[in-house]
Amino acid sequence: MSAALEISGLAKAFGEKIAVDHVDLTVPQGSFYGLVGQNGAGKTTTLAMAVGLLRPDSGGARIFGADVWAEPERAKTLVGVLPDGLAMPERLTGREVLTYLGLLRGMARDVVVERAGELLAVLELDTAENTLVIEYSTGMRKKIGLATALLHGPRLLVLDEPFEAVDPVSATTIKSILRGFVDGGGSVVLSSHVMALVEQLCDHVAVIDQGRVAAAGSLDEVRGAGSLEDAFVELVGASGAGAKGLSWLSR
Amino acid sequence: MAVALTMAAMKMAVLRNSMNSQKAGLVVAGAVLGLILAGGTIAVAFVGDPNVGSVTGWHTGDLLAAAYAVWMLGWIFGPVFIGGGDETLRPEYFTLVGLRPRRLAFGLLTASFIGVAPAVSLVALAALVVFGVRLGSAASVLIALPAMLLSLVVFVLLSRVATAVMGLALRSRVGAIAAGLSNGVILAALGQGWVFFVAFQQVGGIPLTASAILRYLPSGWGLIAVEAAAEGAWPRAVAALAAMCLLIVLLLGAWAALLTRRTSAARPSVRGRRPMTATSAQGAVVAKEMRTWTRDLVRNHQLTFALAYAVFFTSCMLFMGMNGLLPYTGAVFILMAGAMSANLYGTDGTVLWLTLMTPGASEVRGRQWAWLLTVGPVGLALTVAGAAITGGPWPLPLALTAALLGGAAGIVPLISVYALVPGIDPHRRGGNPLRSSEDDGSLTGLAYAVIGLGGLTGVPAGLVASSYGWPGVAVGIVTGALCVWGFGALAESRLQSHGPELLQTMRTGKRAQSASARWKKFDDLPKRDQIIATVGWSLGAIPLFPQGIVAGVMKANGTEEKSWFLALHVPDPWGWPVVVFMVLLGIAMYGGALWVSYRPRPREEALPAAAA
């Protein structure tokens, strides 16, 4: 059985700065995979290369065995992506975005209409029926992004920081959608720097540090006896700089 | 004052940090062009009769008043054309600092004087001093100095206030359309300004009413002061300077008030109402684009601008009793609309990721159809109306309309993927809706490139139509269709092959650059620099040698044969300025080409940090 996502030797340098340094990762089918790392560790760059949004300097990625760069059409119908902070068709309403994308993917109109309605209702975006995406709040943008990722019924979801700026109620909704997706045989890869969230959701985890994989495997393998946060801090070797106080703030 | 100095220092730092060889090239090119214009203004001060009062023929004061009116209008309306004007320091940066609006405005104003445009304008305003000297009055020279400085402050402030007003106008559809109309008319008037001069030439100088109006504009007040000083009319001179001071205070107050509105108001609000009825992938792209054209107020503004520009551009010839240009209104509109949408993909920003995630769906074709559906009917209607009013000719305008429609619909997507100017994502834009990119110089270049290349696509049909009549229309339809099909296919394949690179460019706002030796390889240059280099190297000789030096020699020798030398065709006071202008233009073109091709010292570019 091929892996849901297989990343092999991915590398990317921006000029002198090496953003991703030969990353290998295997996301088994049916797993809920968390990618953790500090800001600037290379999570976003890795995920962008894994789904074909950024051309790697070397290495490659396969989605259910389909090479992302050699067979993009096959690979990209199997994956749904939620990038962090990218634009949407801003002057469309949520329903129009989904209709547009569904048709662009070659789906039948009645299927698109039905799924769009369902997604908007589940994600509670149907109350803002006439609102253009450009006027959405950050949390709403995440939700419409997730809806676009789910629309075509992918088998793998690649989500970059899906919970950032999302309110607790919406986060619960998203979590239950993702859990249901995995229970139904789907696979999810998400990046986050919130350890508690990853611990709560994921069964597999990889720690990325300075563009390399510092540890990867099942959640229990990586965190050992302690919490994921302790394991993470130990792995990335943070110096605990927070201990130095800010002198002018204490009286 | 401390705030003002800090802001000025901040702007210097931002400019220094964002400078690279490309940007420096543009700054130099802009400075050279500006200095040529400023030099021309100073040259005007040497032309005509300086004496105050009624004179026969050209009056220096009138000419200067006209020149400064053009400078002022340039300051006011330039930002509309070049992406919102100088926004190095945005008012939003300071919202949390808690400055009073007046202090904020004063600080931003001070920072506004750091840059090429104010320096160049100051040079142009130095013509006041020259004029004072020619008037032979020490008092005039003395008063010219404060007049220069005050005029510059007025220019900069008018520019800032105008941009702020535009920002507010673009929050509603009515405002966007009104702004588009007025901007189009005024820019067309600037572009066709020669018409007025030819008209004035016929009556032997600027008529008294026109000369009075030019002086009553704030751009003429400095001149009034200088002339009054020469006459010894001190109260008048002082009153003119005081009026400028008063205007500055009022404008500063207005700007401060506008700044508060800008930082506090919400985004423009347009609601989506029509259900999307498309059933195919291409239909969906068309539907998305058409909605963007109608709902994005900046695009509303651009289309209205193109319309007003075209109509006024061709109809202002009516002042000279000529209506021959009217049938070409549609053609001008199409080219201008093309220029406005030149950065098609850059304006939409990183939404390109969705296109990359749906390979196989043809995105370019849908955009082309939407563009044709938006611009085509209006363009055709303008052509038909124009030709109907003048009673023909019909074949040439129709041939051009067909050829240019297709040409622009092909060139626009092609140029926007080949010479993409990274924009600011729509949801991240600040309080200035005109500002779609940090790189307004490139945006302007792209607009001109579309006008130039798009214009070329009309040549075959134009030639056939002007020689053989109606067959030209068929040629126009054929070349138009070929352009849509061929250039669209090229754009599509570029999007397929370089999609991730284009997305990365938009994400980081920087193009991938290759470091090499002192001379950059032509292929390594960004497309825009390639265009600058090509145009500079290949065409720079024309203004420099035949139109400049040769024409100068012939003029000096008093040759009767005028041939194609512009300097020999223009009426007398203008011959020499034209020669000088042509020589400078030639040098500037070579200089620009040299600048983009030559790297003084290989320097590490600031590298985009990996987005992670």
Automatic annotation (TrEMBL), chain A:
Q: List the PROSITE patterns.
A: ABC_TRANSPORTER_2
The segment(s) forming the ABC transporter domain are: 5-235
Q: Give the matching InterPro entries.
A: AAA+_ATPase, ABC_transporter-like_ATP-bd, ABC_Transporter_VariousFunc, P-loop_NTPase
Extract the Pfam families matched here: ABC_tran
Which keywords, in A-to-Z order, does the entry hold?
ATP-binding, Nucleotide-binding, Transport
Please give the SUPFAM superfamilies that the UniProt record associates with this protein: P-loop containing nucleoside triphosphate hydrolases (SSF52540)
The GO terms this record gives for MF are:
ATP binding; ATP hydrolysis activity
* Identification of the protein by name: ABC transporter ATP-binding protein
